[in-house]
Structure formats: structure tokens, C-alpha cells
Amino acid sequence: xxETAMGAGYGLRVPRPRHPRDGRTPHLDTAxxxxxxxxxxxxxxxxxxGLVVGAAxxxxxxxxxxxxxxxxxxxxxxIVRADGAWGSLTPDRLxxxxxxxxxxxxxxxxxxxxxxxxxxxxxxFELWARGRAASSRVAGWRGGDRVVVSGRLVALDEExxxxxxxxxxxxxxxxxxxGDVRTGSRLAEASNRVRALIEQGAGVLAPDDAALARxxxxxxxxxxxxxxxxxxxxxxxxxxxxxxxxxVAFVIAAAGPLLRRSRPLTRWVLxxxxxxWFVLLTRAEPSVLRAGTMAALSATAFLLGRQREPLxxxxxxxxxxxxxxxxxxxxxxxxxxxxxxxxxxxxxxWLAPRLRVLGPLALPVAxxxxxxxxxxxxxxxxxxxxxxxxxxxxxxxxxxxxxxxLYGLPACLVAGVVPVVAPVVMAPVAIGVRWIDAVATVGAxxxxxxxxxxxxxxxxxxxxxxxxxxxxxxxxx
Length: 477
What we know:
alpha+beta; 21 helices; 5 strands
């Protein structure tokens, strides 16, 4: 996904990976990087000192002392950083407050209220706007804006604090009144202008279509009605409205003509800048952080002539992100993104040649099943379900969603800049989003409840095992 687009964007032959001098295979190195990622993830989530001993025990399986020391160091550093991150969630000040605060991200709708995160003197507090007047005022806030607020800073209960920890929220601002609004930094203002153009361009569509289009293009799900959110979850298509590697890949591919005309080092700098801009534009959600980090690692590996194996890049991205921000380990969105990518990059390529009996559907089915398996654990633990129809729904919806993502961003910008052509330019987007929504509607309607969904997954697993077993071994690459 990201890696393919990176190569296309660069327009160059991918250099042959440099192999270690001692004859070790790249796959062995990737395996140990994956082990390191698992150790870091466990340390960030549990902060248990025993993981240092566990890392040392795992390291004995390798004959490389340096690798063993690295695994132990990763576990120890992650635990220390995670302890520090959790300690920072204790607010420095509580009580009455009146002054300026900075808006972090866009307001999110929950039932009849809007929730927005504010940075108050270096600490993050959530504000809930209830009632028509307060909600209408907060709805106009944008990430990076500075607003005058007055109220009381209060602590969160333990359960609620744990639920929002990944956002570094330390408390709640119980607002009495909301005052003036000023634009933020130039970078934030530029990002908001682009998002405003996208919103204006998509505004020629029906309200639900416009909300879905913005979700597909930049992950903006603020105006999606609860019924739409529910049917996308029930049909296994909720991931389409979260920015992923596919979005990042399309942005890089669209910039391919410019990148191909640049020298390698300049090309790398421009690529990183483009990735950073897109991460900022999409508000640095966990899924886009994962995707952007993988794309940046891929660009760097391309420049250095190193391996760009997707699973390797994913493991390195997990290690880097969790070392920088251990609280990401408590983000459901982060693990859904990581799990889906792991399933696509690890299970998909292994399963595809074993499903050749399906002909041209072998690869799409293998990738879709891999993604479903990758998100199985977090989906079951958090949402209590794993969509059975998701495999079929994704096969039907994802290709169209990819076209909407690729065409939708420039189309929305053009429609926003030149409103007179907006109906014509946005017509393909309207057709695409209606198709995707129709697939979600049908999928949600036919999705069985337990125990039929479990029986269905059991049957599907049996069919896949049968097809893989019947596939001639000599044909499996």
C-alpha cells in the first residue's frame, strides 16, 4: 500500500536491499524487530518491570549479545517513559480559571453534546458543550484556535481518566461562559483554510454524503449522523472513515510528477514535508500517525537503499511511536490501525497463493480476511463484535472508496475554490459515497447477531483452511 505508492511517487527502480555481512537473512532481522515491537507495546500498556526480565529471556534465543541488550533497553526505557507519561496526567492546577485556551483538534459530537479538548496553560482539559447555544458556538471552533473561557477545572474519575489518557487529557473544564475566538499559528490557520475549502467543496452534496466524503478524504467524521456510524461499524467498514496508509499513499502518488523531477535528497525532504502536512491536516489521529510514520520510514529507507518490507516498517513505526508517546498504547484507534496493517502485510501475502482457486479474487479476499483477523482482538474486546459480512462488504466497497480518496481531495479543493464548477466536479464523489453507504446499509441489515455470527466465522475459517489445504504446495510461493 504505502510502499507501492512510494515507489510510484518516486518513479525510480527500488534499490536492492543491503544484506548483512554475516549472511543473516532480512526476514530474520524483521522477525526480531517485530519481537521488539511486541516488547515495547507490552511495556507501554502494562508498565510491568517483569518485562525487562522477559526481554532478557527472549534475547537468549539469539546469539547476538547486542540484540539482547537492545531488547532489554527497549523494555526498560519504555517502562520508564510510560510511568512518566501516566504521572503527567495528574493536573498541576484545579479550581477557577478564566483566560485563553488553545483548541486541540475539532469538536466531536456525542449524542446531543459536543466534546472538545482544550490546552490550558500546557495541560489538556476536555470541555462538554450541551444545549443549542453552547453547541453552536463550539461547533465553529477549529484546531489551533485560541478561545477565551471561564469556568472551573475539575479532576476526572479513574475510569474516565483511563479512557481519555491517550489524548493526554488531565481533567475537565466546567465552563460558565465562552468568549472571543482568535486564529492560532500560521501553520494551524493554513491547515484550517484547507479544511474549510474541503468542507465548502463537499457542501454541494447532500449533508450525509458530504459528511461521509470528508470522512473518506481527511478522516473528518464530525458531522456523520449516529445511524451512519452504527451501520459502518456493523458492516465492518468503519475503517474507511479513518485516515490510513491508503490516504497517505494517494497523496504521495498525486505529488509523483513533482517528486520525480527532484534530486534524491530534495525528493526525500519534500516527501517528509508532504507527509507532515497531511498528518497536520488530518489532526494527527492515531491511525494517521501510524500511516505517516510508516511512509516516512519508507521514504528514508528508499533514500538509503534499505529494506522496505511492510511488516518491518510497521514494527519500527510501533516502536518509535510508543517510545515517543507510550499513552498511544491505550488508543483503540491505534491498535485497530496497527492490527489491520499487520493482517494485510503478514496474513494477506501468505494466504493469497493458497487461495488461487478463487482466481482474480484470491488477493482481495486474502487481504480482506487478513485485515479482519488483524482487528479481531480489539474489535471483540472493545465493541464486542466482529462483522461477519465485513469480508464481502470490503470487497465491494474498498475499490470505490479508494477512488473517492484519490479523486476526492483535489476535487473538494477545486470545488471549494471555484464554486461554479462544484456540482460537476463533485458528481463522481457523490456517486462513490452513495455506493459505499449503500453497501454499509445492506451489510448492516444482513449482519447476523450471536451466535450466528460466531457460527458464520467458524464456517468461513473452515472454508479458508480447506482451500489452503487443497492448494497444491508446489504452487505456493
